[in-house]
Amino acid sequence: MKLPANARQVITYGLSMAAAAFLLEWLEVQFLLRRYSTEVYVVILCVLFTGLGVWIGHKLTRREPARAFERNIAALKSLGISERESDVLALLAAGHSNQEIADRLFISLNTVKTHLNNLYRKLEVARRGQAVDRARSLRLVP
Question: 86 and 51 in one domain?
Fold first, then answer.
């Protein structure tokens, strides 16, 4: 297919304008590189060191994918922890207050306190934090 003379003229003119624009941009870059060479090198080094730092940080802090939590059923049975006490313990480990535990499990505040006292006795601890630490070490809660 042969292009009309007018189209060839437009394409030639467009290509020559693009080449001229490219040449001007190249000359401007060359001028800026000579005028601001120190700043350009500093920026290049900053970008390289930042990239290197991000890469090293990613390599050093890579974590294994979290495995699904498996509750230690044998420990629950050996300690004599009931299913309801296990529910209270899970909510306690999640950081909920006694009132929040009561609201979520639809039980009274006194029942929550009773379950907590039973858990403290069974886990051989005196406080909430100790109960959560002991439960996590025994893999009773995530």
Answer: no
Could you tell me the pTM of the whole model? 0.55
Please check whether residue 116 is in contact with residue 127, taking contact to mean a CB–CB distance below 8 angstroms. Answer: no
Question: C-alpha distances in angstroms, 32 versus 29, 39, 43, 115?
Answer: 5, 10, 14, 75
Q: Which domain holds residue 107?
A: 73-137
Highest mean pLDDT among 8-17, 29-38, 44-53, 57-66: 44-53
The SS3 call for residue 85 is helix
CA distance 139 to 142: 7
What are the pLDDT digits (tens) for 104-114?
Answer: 999 999 999 99
Domain count, the chain: 2
* CA distances to 73, 89, 101, 133 from 116, in Å: 19, 8, 11, 14
90: its two tokens: 């899970």
17 vs 2: CA distance, rounded Å:
23
